[in-house]
């Protein structure tokens, strides 16, 4: 497994991370045994970065990871946890809470569900508009001092918030969506992170399966939030899948799959970027791992850029209500 440095203040991690969200219902039903087998297969392949959120499946995802790690050495795994998103018993999203008292509360529950003594990277899932980022990061920094957290990360925040957070405590990485069809970070967020020595863990590298080469229009089922995602809606999805067909021709010429080309493209944007792949089955994991063997030449990158120009996607990456909560989308 290749490795990358996750920010100037962070650890070395595998060149791919495993995003575990899809194993807890966000994309519809998932098979528990297959999910655990996929986590084990990722670890066996050398992936050591597992990403989760305490709100994925309202705790289910952390308990799943905890179960999967019972037979593994704790020091061989880096666990990244997002906190702060609030959900009600009907699983609706009800806002964010990043007050210092909430930070300590969320962390204690995560440690218990995961069955660990510390979390490697702890990060607010979004900016809480009611709480200064300095207060949130300061509270996490106290948990670093107490030994419950090793590194502090951020998620979906913009340049000003990144600078303010980094002034309180060294920031390991920013987790943010980045793919061939979600390139907004290139304008100011990525340069800010590079200036400050902050790594990027890129989620949505396949745009939730849309540019995986496997998606078909109308595929969303019950419990799959993609059924409400703008890029998957009729009128948009057809235009986006046309981009995938352009990628498919490039992939065929390289002897690779569409997903491998899309993952390799993100990885090729800098050694400070670690793509998170959301595989929840071993066959999809195997395909993603194959991206590490794909070398994109300058000519390949130019061809990909022509096939999927910046801004070519139809539809926003979230619905308007969620877009309004993203500090990363402001200014």
TrEMBL record:
One of its GO terms (cellular component) is cytoplasm. The keyword Transmembrane does not apply. Keywords: Oxidoreductase. Coiled coil: none annotated. Residues 16-304 form the NADP-dependent oxidoreductase domain. Pfam families: Aldo_ket_red (PF00248). One of its GO terms (molecular function) is oxidoreductase activity. Residues 312-331 are annotated as: Disordered. The keyword Nuclease does not apply. This is Aldo/keto reductase. It comes from Roseomonas mucosa.
């Amino acid at each position: 497994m290749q490795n990358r440095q996750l920010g100037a203040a962070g650890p070395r991690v595998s060149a791919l991370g495993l995003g575990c969200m899809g194993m807890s219902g966000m994309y519809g039903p998932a098979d528990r045994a297959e999910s655990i087998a996929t986590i084990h297969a990722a670890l066996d392949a050398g992936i050591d970065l597992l990403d989760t959120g305490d709100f994925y499946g309202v705790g289910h995802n952390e308990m799943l990871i905890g179960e999967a790690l019972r037979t593994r050495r704790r020091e061989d795994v880096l666990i990244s946890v997002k906190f702060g998103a609030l959900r009600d018993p009907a699983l609706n999203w009800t806002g964010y809470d990043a007050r210092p008292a909430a930070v300590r509360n969320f962390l204690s529950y995560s440690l218990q569900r995961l069955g660990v003594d510390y979390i490697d990277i702890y990060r607010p899932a979004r900016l809480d508009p009611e709480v200064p980022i300095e207060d949130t990061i300061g509270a996490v920094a106290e948990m670093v001092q107490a030994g419950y957290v090793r590194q502090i990360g951020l998620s979906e925040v913009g340049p000003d918030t990144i600078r303010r957070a980094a002034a309180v405590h060294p920031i390991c990485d920013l987790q943010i969506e980045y793919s061939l069809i979600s390139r907004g970070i290139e304008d100011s967020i990525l340069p800010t992170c590079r200036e400050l020595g902050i790594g990027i863990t890129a989620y949505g590298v396949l745009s939730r399966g849309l540019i995986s080469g496997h998606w078909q229009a109308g595929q969303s089922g019950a419990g799959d939030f993609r059924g409400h995602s703008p890029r998957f809606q009729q009128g948009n999805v057809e235009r986006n899948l046309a981009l995938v067909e352009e990628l498919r021709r490039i992939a065929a010429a390289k002897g690779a799959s569409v997903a491998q080309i899309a993952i390799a493209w993100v990885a090729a944007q800098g050694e400070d970027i670690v793509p998170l792949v959301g595989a929840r089955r071993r066959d999809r994991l195997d395909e993603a791992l194959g991206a590490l063997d794909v070398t994109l030449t300058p000519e390949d990158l130019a061809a990909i850029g022509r096939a999927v120009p910046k801004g070519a996607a139809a539809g926003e990456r979230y619905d308007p209500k969620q877009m309004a909560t993203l500090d990363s989308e402001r200014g």
